[in-house]
Amino acid sequence: MVQLRPVAKGVKTPLEKDGCMRNLTLLTDLYEYSMANGFQSELPPTRATFDVFFRQVPDHGSFVVAAGLQQVVQALDNFHFDQEDLDYLRGLHLYSEAFLQSLSTIKLDCTVQAVPEGMPVFPREPLLTITGPIDQVQMLETLVLNILNHQSLIATKSRRINFAAGGRPVMEFGARRAQGPDSAVYGTRAAVIGGCGSTSNVLAAQEFGIPVAGTMAHSWVESFASELDAFRAWARVYPDNSALLVDTYDVLGSGVPNAITVFRELAAAGHQPVGIRIDSGDITALAKAARAMLDDAGFPDAKITASNALNEQIITALLQEGAPLDNFGVGEELITSSSSPVLSGVYKLAAIEQNGHVTPKIKLSASKAKVTLPGRKQVYRLYRPDTGAAFADVIALADETVGGHPLTVVNSDPLSTHKQVTLTDYVARPLLRPVMSDDGHVNVFDVQRRSRGWLGELPQPVLRLVNPDTYHVYLAPQLAALQTSMLQELRG
Questions:
Q1: Which residues form a coiled coil (predicted)?
Q2: What's the rounded Cα separation, in Å, for the pair 345 and 436?
Q3: Same fold, 23-156+341-491 and 157-335
Q4: Which strand (E) or helix (H) includes residue 283?
Q5: Distances 183 to 70, 145, 202, 247, 307 between C-alpha atoms, Å
Q6: What residue ranges do the domains of the chain occupy?
Q7: What kind and span of H or E run contains 264?
Q8: Which residue in 235, 314, 391, 424 has its CB near the most CB atoms, within 10 A?
Q9: What are residue 303's DSSP bridge partners?
């Protein structure tokens, strides 16, 4: 996890230990430890495989951008129990001393497979699988879901906002609206994976090597005798970073004219003005008028930035209306994904192994959508060999062959009426890859570039924000047959 600086002496926070942020091993639900304690005494040595997947996409989209894997790996590398943790658990009078002693020397014996960060993934596809002693992997459920659900949610929302911006830079401005410091820092990281190019969050910028951006607040303008005095003062302090906030009083009546006055003074002194930011009002009308004023004054390169509770729908509307905007600053709607604030990723048992024998497991439900896929699995993305375009995904058993032959598959959507199809003329590439122990810093912009490449492989109708086309996800024949036979056996 991010190694935050020591907190000030005397300041206490829930995550502080010895003046520093503590490990997150106890960030879990009580039943995880209760089951782990019971597993140790009631089961023979057992290894288990759990899948992480989701069933619904936020904002009625077609896919989720996977994010958070680096922090999961870091959390697993740091998984341990301090004496204080053990004393607390012992004080609950729930767990055997043998279990508590095993926690004191625990060393995770788990293997992880996951799709790479930035990969678009679809409902029911495992985006991470973890295999290990059943007591260990059970204890990891809440921690893993907490990280993956949050970062994947924000990365997905960021992708939508950046898609709406049509290549114009989007700055992440949401720290003050995030649900706490951790959400602000990791939300910024996820926002960059989804396409943002900079942030106003200085801590996140420092931790992840993200360009930091920002102009001024209205309080700067209000603190001086006049708006013009405020702009001139800013230009004296930041002559090469003069982006001026023009809506404190009157955008067109004073804000833009005063900005032009200062821009002329900067240009005369050999400096290049940056531009203006509009944070309120009818942004389309104001931006059109401001653009004309700036152009007439000889500043066609001065940028116009819009902010103020923007989201993908508002940005789309602004651009459709012809607003001449160059940049967007997006805050609360991005950092909280406020229109769809939950990614309901789940962590479900897929198989257990005892004495070398692997037994697939399945969860039944009265709802077809909640029936799980049994067994250890792999996910394949299928590409057309002539164009290199992706056209479908296939979820298969881990030892099931996909590729090199026609494949009769079943639609993974349990509510689909078009169930079976034969696929031909395709190249299959596995998506789940072994994850090694944390090997240090991952450049978030490398993740962003890879994500853009993977998104570019998908059909364009799948990417659109409103009523996206369906991207088909199928079950390979052996997996489909296994699920059907297990359902019949358990229901019979």
A1: none
A2: 23
A3: no
A4: helix 283-296
A5: 15, 14, 14, 30, 21
A6: 23-156+341-491, 157-335
A7: helix 256-268
A8: 235
A9: 275
With a CB cutoff of 8 Å and minimum separation 6, the contacts of 52 are: 126, 127, 128, 129, 130, 144, 145, 148, 345, 346, 347
Cα angle 216-221-224, degrees, rounded to a multiple of 5: 135
Q: Which CATH number fits domain 157-335: 1.20.1090.10, 3.90.1150.10, 3.40.50.1820, 3.20.20.70?
A: 3.20.20.70
For residue 145, CA distances in Å to 47, 94, 343, 382, 464 come to 20, 25, 10, 27, 27
Of all residues in the chain, the percent with pLDDT exceeding 90 is 89
- Could you say which DSSP state residue 8 is in? P
Query: Which amino acid is located at 257 in the chain?
Result: P
Task: Compute φ and ψ for 268, nearest 5 degrees.
Answer: -65, -30
Let me know: does 487 contact 362? Beta carbons within 8 Å. Answer: yes
pTM of the full predicted structure? 0.94
* Residue 112: Cβ within 10 Å count: 23
**101-135 pLDDT, tens digit each:** 999 999 999 999 999 999 999 999 999 999 999 99
Cα 194 to Cα 11, 105, 239: the distances in Å are 35, 39, 32
Token couple for 83 = 């004496």
Q: What pLDDT, in 10s, does the model give residues 283-334? A: 999 999 999 999 999 999 999 999 989 999 999 999 999 999 999 999 999 9
Contacts 24+ apart (CB under 8 A), 79-82: 79/23, 79/25, 79/106, 79/108, 79/140, 80/23, 80/25, 80/106, 81/25, 81/106, 82/17, 82/22, 82/23
- Residue 206's identity, in one-letter code, is Q
CB count in 10 Å sphere of residue 403: 14
pLDDT above 60: residue 4: no
Cα separation, 49 vs 14, in Å, equals 32
Domain 23-156+341-491 matching CATH 3.20.140.10: the answer reads yes
pLDDT at 419: 81
